[in-house]
Amino acid sequence: MTEINLIISADSKIPIYKQIEEYLLEYIxxxxxxxxxxxxxxxxxxxxxxxxxxRQAYNRLQNKGLIIQKAGRGTxxxxxxxxxxxxxxxxxxxxxxxxFYDILAGISKGLNKYNIAAxxxxxxxxxxxxxxxxxxxxxxxxxxxxxxxKNQLWGFYADLTxxxxxxxxxxxxxxxxxxxxxxxxxxxxxxxxxxxxxxKKKTPPYILLFSDLVPHAPFENRLNGxxxxxxxxxxxxxxxxxxxxxxxxxxxxFNRQMxxxxxxxxxxxxxxxxxxxxxxxxxxxxRRQKKxxxxxxxxxxxxxxxxxGNFFDPPLTTIRQNGFAVGETGVEMxxxxxxxxxxxxxxxxxxxxSCII
Length: 357
What we know:
42% helix; alpha/beta; 4-stranded parallel sheet; 13 helices; elongated; 6-stranded parallel sheet; Rossmann fold; Arc Repressor Mutant, subunit A
């Protein structure tokens, strides 16, 4: 029998099955594939632990692909366990920062937990470059991918999956393709709840300030969440609320659209923005317009809870996303430790001085 030096603390807040799992996980990472583990009854008898408790720990390890049970032979460390995996992390965003950095930090923690090697690539890529990068990883033998896409090449990703790739998308995702695995934040519900709360405190009209990134799931869900809240409050578009759209990453077009809609902005009580950067740019624009003070004359709400928003003047009211949890959950989905294929994590409204309700 494999020698197991298991130490169980009955006084610990960590459940006993979890203590067994964590010890065996550490043991698995240090041991070669094919090593035989003791049976449930052996551990139960040696350490005076209920058999069902030991079984629960083993089942969790088996669900993670770390061990394999062979009928009549026993339980062994899986030769294709998580420790043998190589994962490609592809973020089509250039240098990760802010929220994307939080996602990456969560992924890193999740991979380190299982001692998994990762190959990372961060750059802005057009469609052909994105395909070329991922095909090169696939050709090198990598089959596990965590991807933050930009170009929405869902057909290409479906083909790659059909060839044996295991892909989990983070942040952006294909809303209408149930075969894909993804984890993101529940932007629709967050914006619906925020819009509903502010409608009860602030009178219309409102402004929705969104870039042309709306076709991407997170931005479209944010916009639709606010619109649904306004419709349920019986507000009418172009009367009670107005949508200002501008070209993404184009400050000239941003300022042009804001200037063209200054009259509507002066009448509004709140500007709802698709991101914290858009909110900060809106406040800077309003500062240049005399007699439109934030938050005295108009409130501004961002999205993401970037660090800069907390130290901005005035500090930004925003919706906080938990990027770290997105990254960690993405790893668990990749390793099949959860049966869910699509997960949307909750967000939190953070009230600061730019819009007080």
